[in-house]
Amino acid sequence: MKVLKFGGTSIGTPAQIRTALDIIADSASKGRIAVVVSALSGVTDRLIEMANRAAAKDMTYLDLLDRLEARHIKYAQTLIGKENRETAINDLRSLIKELKNLLRGVSLLRHLTPKTLDRILSIGERLSVIIISHSLKSGHIAAEALDARRIIVTDETFGAARVKLDKTYSSIRACFRACSALQVVTGYIAASVNGNTTTLGRSGSDYTAALIGAALNATAIEIWTDVNGVLSADPRKVPEAFTLPYLTYEEAREMSQFGAKVIFPPALRPAIDRNIPILIRNTFQPDSRGTIINNHPQSKKSTVMGFSSLNGITLIRVKGNGMPDGVGIMGRLFHILAKEKINPLFISLAPGDHAVRFAVKTEETQKARAVVEKEFALEIQANMMETIKAENNLSIIAVVGRNMSRLPAISGRVFNALGRNGIKIVAATQGSSERNISIVVNQKDETKAVRSLHDAFFSRT
Ligand code: ASP
Ligand code: MG
Question: What residue spans in the chain does CATH classification 3.40.1160.10 cover?
Fold first, then answer.
């Protein structure tokens, strides 16, 4: 058994869907498979936009809704054979009606809750599986749409629900035991024990595929996307970036940490637990091998494998005024950040200075700052701590590699390459793992920095 997942960018046009259908048909002819799909490309963003407009009583949400309906119906007409077309279009229309009712509710109440938003977002994947499953049927493949709300059980953290693994695995197994047709499963969406619709977090379809793969002990989880696997850097920044043929799960996690288009990080866990390889493949170049992610490192040599980076970063500095209790401060700081679900992307300590700097996404700055100021209000008032400072317009770059701490020369080369190219390092840390060195630079220097690093480590001249 294999699980194939197709992201939105693999199913953005009818022609692209045809390509995906060929890949599915080819795999299905070789053995049992399950298919997981995202919403058509851009649909999730569009649904969020509609929901926001409806909440603001901006009636143009209806125009977006019409366009969404027209697009899906056109795809159905283009892809689905006569025998199934009408059923498919009726199913699509009844989902659009459900969406319309939800949006009308939002606009009447002028209020959008995370719970309602998840209901609205679920429509994207529920629409796409109708198109894909019926198109497969038209190609004489016995396929069925499967709503993942029947098999994936979560808590009620709407927007980023946590999966209850035992319940989920047993319902996946029960469901697949009971059916013989090829299941085309909605990615991204799930349901709570109480039956409320939830979502797994943006890009969560990978996670759906991994859960199904793990439950069914699949031989592989194939993530079909629009790039040739995991690249050594973002090709939009570094044209020379190349495909990494093999990565370990941990390396893949490091590479995807800063938004590199690799894999949704929680999806790695189920694969790791069952030791199932994850293949990242390009729908539009199915002959290229892509990247294989598994648990055997290709070598033990110290090496740099790639770079990933993220802009829109803010560094927040918390600094004591010669306070005796540095450790207590750190403890309280990290405790309060964790409690408020603020996840620092980078932490640098200067214990002698009683200072900590941590990086957050800029949109989280206000919240992070308020939380820290509240926690340390007394200390700040008593002048035992300096006011909290925030530095904006920064980017963070991860240098991802293997056994890097064994080779101090690697950090030397990193700093050299940046220095030589006149890039100011705002902050840097050797990550707690040997797999990551993180560097904060000014956002305007990000592309140049990644290019200089790529060049320093990979250029053949
Ligand atoms: N459609 C969802 C999103 O755009 C889930 C996914 O694509 O994996 O985030
Ligand atoms: Mg998507």
Answer: 2-226
Q: Sign of torsion, CA 67 70 75 78?
A: negative
Give me the CATH topology for the region 2-226: Carbamate kinase (3.40.1160)
**pLDDT, tens digit (0-9, with 9 covering 90-100), for 345-401:** 998 887 677 788 999 999 999 999 999 999 999 988 988 888 899 999 999 999 998
State the Cα–Cα distance between residues 36 and 145, nearest whole angstrom: 10
Q: Is 186 in the pocket of ligand 1 (CB under 6 A)?
A: no
Q: Superfamily for 305-458?
A: VC0802-like (3.30.2130.10)
Q: Is the Cβ–Cβ distance between 427 and 443 less than 8 Å?
A: no
What confidence score (pLDDT) does residue 353 get?
73
Residue by residue, DSSP assigns 266-321 as: GGHHHHHHHT--EEEEETT-TTS--EEEES--S--S-EEEEEEEEEEEEEEEEEBS
Residue range(s) in the chain whose domain bears CATH number 3.30.2130.10: 305-458
pLDDT at 411: 85
Q: Is 263 helix (H, G, I), strand (E, B) or coil?
A: coil
Predicted pLDDT of residue 201: 96
| C-alpha to C-alpha distance for 40 and 127, rounded to whole angstroms | 8
Measured in angstroms, how far is the CA atom of residue 315 from the centroid of ligand 2?
29
What is the Å distance from ligand 2's center to 316 Cα? 31
The count of residues in the chain is: 461
Q: State which residues of the chain have pLDDT below 70.
A: 259-260, 322-327, 351, 406-408, 431-433, 460-461
Q: Which helix (H) or strand (E) holds 124?
A: helix 114-138
Q: Does ligand 1 lie within 6 Å of residue 7's CB atom?
A: yes
Question: Looking at the CA of 187, which ligand is closest?
Answer: 1
Residue nearest to atom 5 of ligand 1 (CA): 203
Q: Is the CB of 8 under 6 A from ligand 1?
A: yes
